[in-house]
Structure formats: structure tokens, C-alpha cells
């Protein structure tokens, strides 16, 4: 590799002398896509109005606590008793989450089966009988009773699992936080080492990923072999069904066999990719080295993902809270309930005025009981539209925050590339300046690209909803058509994300509107499609291996800690209902943290690559049209051109 020249002007000249009209990211620009910016601001105002309306009408207690037949909450440690559990066997119970029978709050579950008639007659019925007699004298089998109780307990069991998971979080939250801090430190150290030892670290990363997955295969095999011959370990997952105690699945051989097969497939795929891409790895490593130099001059870029994470957390929290308040903003609806024939049965009623109405006269024994939560006001009629608007704005805002991060990083790294004298021509605060330009001039362009992506995402949600509705349908043609649409829109979303990312880079470089930038980026990439496949995507693959390595290291350590397999800290490990809860939380958190750090590298590589392609088309390296690229980057791409085998 050629040594970097101390004075690049001697070889390349000063491009600003020959093309004073060139507009890089640090030059003057105007506002873009103003109409879309205004539309986005109005949509946000509407979003805030929906949130305020939902918060004034909703009651989250309806999600946490069950209600009796009068719509009253059962308290903080609720148990709900159903008078006729058989009526809960209806499939409508799973949809409406309400059982058409009288319900009361009790402190403990009864241990006897008894009808109201027998209770009044003071006749005890021991609760170990296989057949029972209801009020009408009909004999009921215990199997029917069990089926009814299972369906009525779906929500109760779900709440119980949620409470146990919540308890695990309360016991292990500080250890989870420590695991995430370790993941952040490992990611930061890894990125800093890439800055100075890019070549060595990439090869170490490749070796460690293969080694960690290999250890996972070995561990799964040892667990599989240790369960051989143990009673009950040969039970299949299908025979077990869905259990709330997930630790049971780890006691059967089939689970570990499945894990081992999955890891073997991943290992083989990674090794084959490394073999086929071995000639391109050296070039990709050199490109990572160049990206490391850019990040070294823009070190604040490593911490920008924290701002993106904070903004995304705010967007998610607002959406979730608004969704909960919207879903609990229904009013209690009461209906007439009567055991005999009555013309007013199932009609809505008011419990405060029911006893003084003529219904009790015409239908003796009728009661005004709580049925479900609903409402007939204008607000309640359009409640589903408010939920839809909440979801759509969530997608739009989340995509906007992501786009803002991409444009900010692209602008900072583009200012590095287009600085002729590095680092003298680089702005003093590249990230801050780039963020200011993005918000001041290109909010409309970011909102435009985010809107297109949000529309595709909401269509995918609608298609998933329709797919769930057609699960029991017999129309195979409709199912096939729906599957094709889901596949097409999934591909469309991936393509739009790819196009948006490169369009935002062009917005950061030239300051043009979104459509023009997307068109320029697309055709620029098409003119350099081989370089995109050879360099950009191979580099993305290497960075993905880095994420896997960090997640694997943190995940293995958390597994041994929370399962008490580390003798030194066995006493410190918390006692949990499900030890997979903190492990899964740490693994997901570690991936998000690693993705945040490595996304900076990925954005840097994509920006430098696009700038390089633009530089090659604008200039030829002569004294009249000198390159902006560094001699090292020029050598990297020259090597790529010479080794091109396509």
C-alpha cells in the first residue's frame, strides 16, 4: 500500500479551483420537500390530539385487573369466580374476553362444585365427582367442565405468566443492566480496536464467530447426550404442546437436537460464504480501515446512536401508552339477563335506573348485568380509526427518527470525504453541523421518505390482519393470493429501505429533494452494481459477523450466570421463575447495542462508497479534475478493479 502523501495537492490539485459550483455537504443549500414537511407537522399535531383524547378517556386498570358482573375491579390480587363455567366454553370468549355468566370477585377459589339450588338447600357436593347436575337437572361430564375452565383461564394464565415475568425482572433488573453495560463496553472496545487494528480485528472476529458457534454446537450435543436414557426426555415438542413453564422444553432431547441442527446450518453457511468471498475479504478489510480513519476524525459519531435510541424509545413509549389508553377507553355496557323468555333479553340497560323500569315488571327475575366494555358515542364509533392512526404515525415517526440518524451520519462522513485537506477542511463539529442541516433544510425530505415506507408497512399490517381472519377459510385461491401479496410487499419494504438509505446519503451530499436524490442514488448504484456486490455487501457481511460475535459472547456469559453454572458467582445469581427472561433480554439488548455501534461503521462505509462512485464519475485524477479520495482509498478500488473476475 502506498504511503499517504503529506500534501495531496501536489498530486491531485485543489478541486475547488476548477469547479467552484460544486455543492458538497458543507456548502449552502435550500429547504427541500416543504409540502411534505408541513404535512408531517400537521400529522404530529393530530397525533398529539389523539393522545390527549385517549389519556382523558382511557383507564389502564382494565388491562391489569379483571372486573365482575357489575364492571367493578377486583383489586390488586384478584380471583374471579364464574357462576356457570360451562358458558365459558364458547369460542366467543376468546374474542370478547368476556364470559356470559355472573362473575364475582373472591379471595380464594372454591374447592366444591355446587349449583345455586343445592347451595340454598345446604347440600354439599364434594369436588371429586366425574359427573355433575346443573340447575336444569342436566347431567354434565367433568371433561366438558374442564374444557370450559381451560377456555376461561386463557386470560388468567396469560396474566399469571406476565406477573411471573415481571417478578423475574424485579429480581434481575440490576444484573440485566450490568449485562447491557458489559455489551456496550465490549462493543465500544471492539470499535476502537477496529480504528487502530482493523485488519487484525476482522480476522480475529471471523475466527471467534466460527469458534463461538462451534462451542454452541458442542454444548447442545453434550446436553442432548446427557438426557439420553432419562425417563421422559424422549417426549416430542408436539406432544408437550404450549406450556407456560418453558424450562420443561430444555428437559427433552428434541429441543437440544433442534438447537444443534440450527447452529450447524449457520456454521456451514458462514464457512461457505467465507470460502467463496476469500478474494474479496482483503479488499473489504481495506475499506473498513478507510472507514476507521473517517470515524477517527468524527469520533462523536460513535455516540450518535444513543440519541437515535432515546428518540426511538420516546416514539415507542408514546405509541404504546396511547394504544393502551385507546383500548381501555370504552365504557361499561350493561345488558338485560334473564333465565326465562323475555323480550328485553340482551338489550342494553342502566343499572342505576333498572329496578324502577318496567322491565322488572314484565320479566320477573331479570337483572341488569355488566356485559363488556364498549360505547355508542361518536368517539367510540371511530375508536378503531384512532388506533389505526396511532399505528400509522408510529411507523412514520420511527422511520423519521431512523432517517434523521442516517442523514446526520452521512452528512458528517461526507464532509470528511469531500474535505480536500484532511483534517483541516473537516468542520469542527461535523455531527452537530450535519444534524442542524438535516433539521433546518431537509425535514421535508426525511418525512417524504419515511411516509413512503410507513405506507408500505401499514399495508403489510393489514395483510397480516386479513391473513389471521382467513385462517379458517377454505378458499385456497384467496390464501395463495394473500401469500403472494405479503411476499411482494415484504420485498418492496426491503427495496424501499435500501433506496431510502442511499437517497439520504445523496441528500446529505448535494442537498436536493428526496425524489431527485433517490433517482440519482439508484442510477449511480446501477452504474456501479459490481462494486456494490463486491465491496459494500461483503463489508456489511463482516460487520454482521461482528454483531454476532458480541451477542454470542454476552449471551453465553449471561446463560452461565443466570443458570448458576459459574461456581464463583453462584450465590449471587437471582432465584427466577424463568431464567430465560433475563438471558433473552440481555441477548436482545446486546444485539441492539452492537447494531447501534456497527451501524455507524455501516453508514460510514456506504457513504464513502457512494462518494467514491460520485468522485470517479466527476473526476479522473488529472490536474484539471483531481480526486477527492485519499491515495489509500484509490489504491483499494484500483486493487478491486484489477482483481475483478466478473
From TrEMBL:
Domain of life: Eukaryota
Gene Ontology MF term list: antiporter activity
GO cellular component, one term: mitochondrial outer membrane
InterPro entries found in the cross-reference section: Choline_transptr-like
Main location as per UniProt: membrane
Membrane topology: Multi-pass membrane protein
Keywords of this entry: Antiport, Cell membrane, Glycoprotein, Membrane, Mitochondrion, Mitochondrion outer membrane, Phosphoprotein, Transmembrane, Transmembrane helix, Transport
Bilayer-crossing regions: 34-55, 173-193, 200-218, 256-277, 298-321, 393-420, 441-463, 541-564, 576-603
Reactions the enzyme catalyzes: ethanolamine(out) + n H(+)(in) = ethanolamine(in) + n H(+)(out); choline(out) + n H(+)(in) = choline(in) + n H(+)(out)
Keyword Ribosomal protein (UniProt): no
Membrane is among the record's keywords: yes
Subcellular location: Cell membrane; Mitochondrion outer membrane
Family: Belongs to the CTL (choline transporter-like) family.
Its biological purpose: Choline transporter.
PANTHER family with a match to the protein in the record: CHOLINE TRANSPORTER-LIKE (SLC FAMILY 44), CHOLINE TRANSPORTER-LIKE PROTEIN 2
Name of this protein: Choline transporter-like protein
Record organism: Cyprinus carpio
Organism lineage: Eukaryota, Metazoa, Chordata, Craniata, Vertebrata
Amino acid at each position: 500500500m502506498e504511503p499517504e502523501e503529506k500534501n495531496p495537492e501536489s498530486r491531485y490539485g485543489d478541486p475547488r479551483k476548477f469547479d467552484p459550483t460544486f455543492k458538497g455537504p458543507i456548502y449552502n443549500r435550500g429547504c427541500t420537500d416543504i409540502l411534505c414537511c408541513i404535512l408531517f407537522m400537521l400529522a404530529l399535531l393530530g397525533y398529539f390530539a389523539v393522545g390527549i383524547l385517549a389519556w382523558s378517556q382511557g383507564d389502564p386498570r382494565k388491562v391489569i385487573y379483571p372486573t365482575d358482573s357489575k364492571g367493578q375491579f377486583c383489586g390488586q390480587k384478584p380471583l374471579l369466580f364464574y357462576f356457570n363455567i360451562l358458558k365459558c366454553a364458547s369460542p366467543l370468549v376468546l374474542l370478547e374476553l368476556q364470559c356470559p355468566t355472573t362473575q364475582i370477585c373472591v379471595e380464594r377459589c372454591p374447592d366444591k362444585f355446587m349449583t345455586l339450588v343445592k347451595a340454598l338447600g345446604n347440600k354439599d357436593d364434594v369436588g371429586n365427582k366425574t359427573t355433575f347436575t346443573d340447575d336444569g337437572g342436566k347431567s354434565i361430564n367433568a371433561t366438558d367442565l374442564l374444557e370450559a375452565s381451560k377456555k376461561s383461564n386463557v386470560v388468567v394464565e396469560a396474566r399469571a405468566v406476565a406477573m411471573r415475568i415481571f417478578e423475574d425482572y424485579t429480581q434481575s433488573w440490576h444484573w440485566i443492566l450490568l449485562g447491557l453495560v458489559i455489551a456496550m463496553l465490549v462493543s465500544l472496545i471492539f470499535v476502537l480496536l477496529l480504528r487502530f487494528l482493523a485488519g487484525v480485528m476482522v480476522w480475529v472476529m471471523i475466527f471467534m464467530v466460527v469458534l463461538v458457534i462451534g462451542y454452541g454446537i458442542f454444548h447442545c450435543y453434550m446436553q442432548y447426550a446427557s438426557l439420553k436414557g432419562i425417563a421422559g426426555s424422549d417426549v416430542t415438542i408436539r406432544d408437550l404442546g404450549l406450556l407456560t413453564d418453558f424450562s420443561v422444553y430444555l428437559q427433552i432431547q428434541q429441543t437440544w437436537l433442534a438447537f444443534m441442527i440450527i447452529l450447524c446450518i449457520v456454521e456451514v453457511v458462514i464457512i461457505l460464504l467465507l470460502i467463496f468471498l476469500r478474494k474479496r475479504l482483503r479488499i473489504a478489510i481495506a475499506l473498513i480501515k478507510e472507514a476507521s480513519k473517517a470515524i477517527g476524525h468524527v469520533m462523536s459519531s460513535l455516540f450518535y446512536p444513543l440519541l437515535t435510541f432515546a428518540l426511538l424509545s420516546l416514539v415507542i413509549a408514546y405509541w404504546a401508552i396511547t394504544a393502551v389508553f385507546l383500548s381501555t377507553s370504552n365504557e361499561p355496557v350493561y345488558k338485560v339477563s334473564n333465565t326465562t323468555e323475555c323480550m328485553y333479553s340482551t338489550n342494553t340497560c342502566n343499572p342505576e335506573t333498572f329496578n324502577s323500569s318496567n322491565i322488572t315488571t314484565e320479566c320477573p327475575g331479570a337483572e341488569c348485568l355488566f356485559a363488556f366494555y364498549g360505547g355508542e358515542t361518536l368517539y367510540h364509533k371511530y375508536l378503531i380509526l384512532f388506533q389505526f392512526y396511532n399505528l400509522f404515525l408510529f411507523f412514520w415517526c420511527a422511520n423519521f427518527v431512523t432517517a434523521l440518524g442516517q442523514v446526520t451520519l452521512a452528512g458528517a462522513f461526507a464532509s470528511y470525504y469531500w474535505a480536500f485537506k484532511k483534517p483541516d477542511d473537516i468542520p469542527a463539529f461535523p455531527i452537530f453541523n450535519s444534524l442542524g442541516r438535516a433539521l433546518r433544510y431537509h425535514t421535508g425530505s426525511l418525512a417524504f421518505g419515511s411516509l413512503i415506507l410507513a405506507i408500505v408497512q401499514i399495508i403489510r399490517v393489514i395483510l397480516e390482519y386479513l391473513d389471521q381472519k382467513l385462517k379458517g377459510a377454505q378458499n385456497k385461491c384467496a390464501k395463495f393470493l394473500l401469500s403472494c401479496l405479503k411476499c411482494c410487499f415484504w420485498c418492496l419494504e426491503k427495496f424501499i429501505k435500501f433506496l431510502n438509505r442511499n437517497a439520504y446519503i445523496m441528500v446529505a451530499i448535494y442537498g436536493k429533494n428526496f425524489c431527485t436524490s433517490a433517482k440519482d442514488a439508484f442510477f449511480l448504484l446501477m452504474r456501479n452494481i459490481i462494486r456494490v456486490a463486491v465491496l459494500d455487501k461483503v463489508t456489511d457481511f463482516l460487520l454482521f459477523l461482528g454483531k454476532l460475535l458480541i451477542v454470542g459472547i454476552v449471551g453465553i456469559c449471561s446463560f452461565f450466570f443466570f443458570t448458576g453454572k459459574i461456581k464463583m458467582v453462584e450465590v449471587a445469581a437471582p432465584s427466577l421463575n424463568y431464567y430465560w427472561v433475563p438471558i433473552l433480554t440481555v441477548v436482545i439488548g446486546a444485539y441492539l447495542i452492537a447494531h447501534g455501534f456497527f451501524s455507524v461503521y455501516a453508514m460510514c462505509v456506504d457513504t464513502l462508497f457512494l462518494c467514491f462512485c460520485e468522485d470517479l464519475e466527476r473526476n479522473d485524477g488529472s490536474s484539471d479534475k483531481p480526486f477527492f479520495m485519499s491515495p489509500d482509498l484509490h489504491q483499494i478500488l484500483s486493487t478491486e478493479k484489477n482483481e475483478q473476475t466478473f
